[in-house]
Every structure is written in C-alpha cells, then in structure tokens.
C-alpha cells in the first residue's frame, strides 16, 4: 500500500515542489494550505502526472482545524506517516517597529503549526512503526536583520526537531530540519518588493554571495525532503541540513 504524506503550505513555492516530488516518489500526498481551492494547481499537476493527491484546507495554527485535517487525510488517503512542516509566513520589521501581531503571527504559523501538526500525526506514525517528519527551518535561524520574529521561529524549529528525534526515535520515526538559503519563491519576491529592489536584481545580488553562484529553486529543497522521507534515511535523525549553495554554521 502507498504511504501517505502531508505537506503543509503546499499550494505554491517550496511546499508545492515538495508535494510533487513526494508524489513522483510514489506517496499519496495531502496538499494542505489555508484554503482548499488554492491547492488545486498542485493537486492537478500531481494527478496529471499519474500521482495521487488530496486538497485539504486547514490553518496549521488552529488546533481544531489541524485535528480535522489530519482525520480527513487518514480517512480519505490513508494514515499519514510522512509530515513536511513547510507552511510559513514572514512579517519582517526592525525590532523597534515590530508589532505584537507580527511577532505572534510568525510564531503561530511556524512553531505552533509544526507542534499541532506533529502531535496530530504522531499516533499514526507510532502505530505504523514508521514515520518521517521534516521541518522547514532557514538560514535566518543564524540571525537576519529585520527578522527577529522569523529568526527566533526558525531557530525554534531546530530545537523542536531535535527533541522530536529523541522522543520518537524508538518508534521508527525520524525528525530532521531543512534550513534553506535563498530560494526563488513568492516569499523572496515579497522581500524584494519590501526593500524596494526589482526581483531580478535582488536575485543577482543574492547569487553573488552564494558559493554555487546561483539562487536556490524549490526543487533543491524538494530533492532533500525526498531523501529525508525515504526508507533509506532511517539512521539520519535530529539533523539540520543547510541547503544554501554553500556552508553555513
Ligand atoms: N523562500 C525562501 O528563500 C525560504 C528560505 C528559508 C526557509 N523558507 C521556508 O520554507 C517554507 C516555504 O516557503 P516559500 O518560500 O515556499 O513560501 P510561500 O509564501 O511561497 O508559501 C508558503 C505557503 O504556506 C501557506 N501558509 C501560510 N500560513 C499558513 C497556515 N497558517 N496554514 C496553512 N498554510 C499556510 C501559504 O498560503 C503559502 O501557500 C516556509 O516555512 C519558509 O519560511 C523559505
């Protein structure tokens, strides 16, 4: 029987690429995002390539929404044993201008969201004696001007990941984090707009600082997630893999 994966925030960007890659790896994929209708493009791409996918509307920061979504996936697609906590937002500002709403909003989607999703799927993984949790961190975890909220959340994702690995390892469940550098998505396009630089120039400037001399693409993250989700990655747990075109701390 096919294994089932849930990819949060997979209507677009990195999540969409991860969902498509996992579907091509042979998993049934729940494409979860805020609104079921926005999941259609990812679901259609998977189905037209011969894969299996289900659109699920849910807010990862809301407990009841998460519980209902995971139950629906288990019933309609099969017990989820692969979880990619990818949903994310930015609310950038310098500390002195950052509002409590901007702080809480970022914490809620990344940390509360990853906690609620992981808690909701863990029983399925424990029952199966197999599970893979992959959390999206970021190079911003190492510190990034204008992102005190996001940086704290992404550093938090790393501690969360390591503790999941320790608690769930004996049940056949691994937990790892991917920390992407600059990836070309709507999130980085919005950052360029916020700082008043055209996206092409913004990407060029970023690429000049990256050892492999290019910015990342969502597929770069999807390929790493595919490895971490695989059976063969069962002895890799509690790790943070920087996928940034060069070394990071
Ligand atoms: N793009 C980058 O350079 C980069 C770098 C490092 C880390 N990341 C991380 O990778 C992940 C994906 O980033 P992206 O660039 O594809 O972003 P994106 O903005 O293109 O996509 C994020 C998706 O998450 C969804 N989402 C937001 N809040 C949600 C919620 N409460 N519940 C469910 N879905 C929600 C959005 O609707 C959207 O479809 C994020 O966690 C981000 O922080 C991105």
From TrEMBL:
Give yes or no: UniProt keyword RNA-binding: no
Gene Ontology terms describing biological process = monocarboxylic acid metabolic process
Domain of life of the source:
Bacteria
Asked if Amino-acid biosynthesis is a keyword of the record, the answer is: no
Catalysed reactions listed for this entry = a (3R)-hydroxyacyl-[ACP] + NADP(+) = a 3-oxoacyl-[ACP] + NADPH + H(+)
- Among the Pfam families in the record, one is adh_short_C2
Question: Where the protein is mainly located, per its record?
Answer: secreted
Annotated localization:
Secreted, Cell wall
Q: Which UniProt keywords apply?
A: Cell wall, NADP, Oxidoreductase, Secreted
Gene Ontology molecular functions:
3-oxoacyl-[acyl-carrier-protein] reductase (NADPH) activity
**Cited SMART domains:** PKS_KR (SM00822)
The family database entries (InterPro entries) matched by this protein are listed as: KR_dom, NAD(P)-bd_dom_sf, Sc_DH/Rdtase_CS, SDR, SDR_fam
Q: Where is the Ketoreductase domain?
A: 3-181
Q: Which Gene3D superfamilies match?
A: NAD(P)-binding Rossmann-like Domain
Coiled-coil region list: none
The record, for PANTHER family, names:
3-OXOACYL-(ACYL-CARRIER-PROTEIN) REDUCTASE, 3-OXOACYL-[ACYL-CARRIER-PROTEIN] REDUCTASE FABG
For this chain, the family text in UniProt reads: Belongs to the short-chain dehydrogenases/reductases (SDR) family.
Write the protein's name. 3-oxoacyl-[acyl-carrier-protein] reductase MabA
Organism, per UniProt? Rhodococcus jostii
